[in-house]
Amino acid sequence: xxxxxxxxxxxxxxxxxxxxADATLVRERANQLRQAQPAFAGLAMGDRAALLLxxxxxxxxxxxxxxxxxxxxxxxxxxxxxxxxxxxGGIERxxxxxxxxxxxxxxxxxxxxxxxxxxxxxYALTGVISPWNFPLLLSLIDAVPALLAGSAVLIKPxxxxxxxxxxxxxxxxxxxxxxxxxxxxxxxxxxxxAVVDVADIVCFTGSVATGRKVxxxxxxxxxxxxxxxxxxDPLIVLPDSDLERxxxxxxxxxxxxxxxxxxxxxxxxxxxxxxxxFVDLLVAKAQALALNTPDIRQGHLGPIIFDRQAEVIAAQxxxxxxxxxxVRTGGQVETHEGGRxxxxxxxxxVTHQMTIMREETFGPIIPVMRYRSVDEAVxxxxxxEFGLSAAVIGPDLDLALAVASRIDVGAVxxxxxxxxxxxxxxxxxxxxxxxxxxSRMGPAxxxxxxxxxxxxxxxxxxxxxxxxxxxx
Length: 472
Ligand code: NAD
Prior knowledge:
Aldehyde Dehydrogenase, Chain A, domain 1
């Protein structure tokens, strides 16, 4: 066990420590979960779904404790109410997602005397490693389908937001049959690395830099890894757009949760003919938003949760301003009562030489760039190492769809932005450096946790060496 600090993002104060699990503890717990897993996998999927529904109920009963812990972890209130609602809704959606599909079966085309049936075998132990921006939701998003598949799950949440772990663990204990195959072990990167060392399949959500380390460690062990990493999502505003609608969507999708969301809009491209009017309206709407300090129950934007992210944001702003960007509103990381905040910030005169247009910001900053042709807008949107998601808004749906199909990302919202955070039915993968592996959304999200095993039944004579003799 190692003692790790608990920081209050609203004050910057270190309010205590928590015990991070070391590799020995992770291994011991992993062995216990593994031992319980075969019986759990032996249940019908409907019985596992029923346990998940009991867990959803247990989370609901512990709503007050969870909300208090998450508010303390993140310094925001409304977003946390929505996060808990989304996490419980996700459990219920998976639990009610239907029955086990009929196993694939048939007769071999190459060897008609052989018929086959395919079994789906869950991985014994899934390791889930999650980030701090939506601590509960992103700890559960892969864990729930893994459990439904019959896998045991060990979750390692972020050390930046550790307080929600206790009420979460308590909710798991409320459902003993689930507690036998599911646990949450807090800790830092060392605990995360220990989880990668024991899991049979790894689901990681976090930064590209850590994702690479996790992928390397998983490759060494030859276990599959699913990576959901960073983004630099573009929004293309097509000519003749309704600017009320477009600025509403751009603002919300850029600054919600203080921009601390992977699918935040972080670059906006507006046609020359509407650029100035778009910026004026966006600035007016941005200025109408307020920080949630000193009262967590007032305003729209919480603090920057992770203090080091405040440095990244300030450095990107300084780089942009030094290279000629114009700050139209916001633009200063502010300190209030020891916490770090940034008001919605609109930048113009930005270029792709600036880090603010190339690297993930994870803050409420909206850089707006003008374009003169749709081809130029598409080229700018694609000029990125990231390929998480994007948005296209415009009056001509056919044009919007054509543009969407040319953007090299795993999901595109049309006539809105950032819809992937709410719509989990459609399968999507993360392109380029934004991730690796199959879709966590839609039916594929469950399928990831099964290995396929073919049972081949010979109904004719066994094949003999006679077929391999050189002469008849
Ligand atoms: P991070 O990479 O710093 O940490 C993520 C997790 O990895 C933490 O739990 C951390 O303790 C753990 N970790 C650190 N080193 C490790 C190691 N060597 N082995 C195993 N685990 C290790 O990311 P963060 O700062 O917590 O989260 C922000 C990032 O997450 C952003 O880049 C954001 O875009 C990304 N994110 C992506 C999605 C998505 O779905 N694509 C969703 C949310 C956040």
